[in-house]
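Support case: fe (ii) ion complex. Customer-provided input:
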Amino acid sequence: MTEQLREHVARQLERSRARSTQLTDAVDEHDLVRQHSKLMSPLVWDLAHIGNQEELWLVRDVGGREPVRQDIDEYYDAFKFSRSKRPELPLLGPKETRQYVGDVRGKVFDVLEKVPLEGRRLVENAFAFGMIVQHEQQHDETMLATHQLRVGDPVLQAPPPPAGNAVLTTEVLVPAGSFEMGTSTEPWALDNERPAHPVHVKAFHIDTAPVTNAEYAEFIAAGGYDREEFWSAEGWMHRLHSKLRAPRFWQREGSGWARTVFGVTEALVPNEPVVHVCFFEAEAYAKWAGKRLPTEAEWEKAARHDPATGRSRRYPWGDEDPTPQHANLGQRHLRPAPVGAYPAGVSPLGVHQLIGDVWEWTASDFHGYPGFEVFPYPEYSKVFFGSDYKVLRGGSFGTDEAAVRSTFRNWDYPIRRQIFAGFRCARDAF
Ligand SMILES: [Fe+2]
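Agent response - structure generated as follows:
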């Protein structure tokens, strides 16, 4: 059992490193060290930060080994310097960074071979290794967002996602009742997903699929960006201040729209979920459509609740890990898949594409669940609890399967658009 777990960890570590290497080898040294947007770190910072977190947790803490490079800790501490300040720090160069992350990884494989995976909560079920795998995959998604912001010739390639299919209903009714939200058993679930607890949810309707580009274009054509009545007070202020007119990366082309995807400008694909909208835009669209955003509990119930058994599943399709037939994850494709592309991933109630494609904005602020306990450190999620952040669910085409579950919670500021975020709507059932 332990041997199987160690092999599983090793495979996951290798998968995440292959992705980090692909994302950083795809560009030249100049593009590695420069800042492509004030919102993002230089790619070389993300890579060294991945190595530094791995060193702190797995080499020094779990392994009890000597530091590899204690002198650089502060430059790669995400809480010490904001993203906009990072380019001015005495960061490791590309060659040094690659050497550093490789040295750390070598020690980690040695620790993985020797450390007992018991006796401490941090190592039970190889949790600390799982946390570091997820951390690297999360930064890989961040680096993918940096690639989308980068200006220049395209450097990333991937096959197109599967074709869409007609989705027969526009909405699904989720009946009233209690369901189990969160988890106490998923071994690599992070502190904010715990513990499992019952939540009563009133009956509601939820969109069968995420809102598409064509639907979003109708909102724009209906004057959605000029009609204050659809926006919250805060949302309208932001809409005016930031001069929002359309999702990020959209531009007018004749009477329609084009958008730029990883350096390629193309006509908008009508039945693809809209991406790169902020929370305020999602909220305004929903109001225009006579609906609202789902709460986090509603989203999770739609994704996990199995009315036949009354239990909550790990994923909409069941308990088995995602396969390429279930969901558009892991940067296998460089875009969300059209609506109806994943019939095998549908939830028991008939809701499509909850996992993968686009992160989905919810109406909920980010808070700890009843009985929340910090583990293993408050900076993972506790310091973000409060009304500043909105919760996003489900992962995007750029999220790895190791870094998303139906219980997984992401959070961001309601103005953010560089992330791969879209949404679906809900409404009360009367
Ligand atoms: Fe980080």
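The two ends are 51 Å apart (CA to CA).

Case will auto-close in a few days if no follow-up is received.
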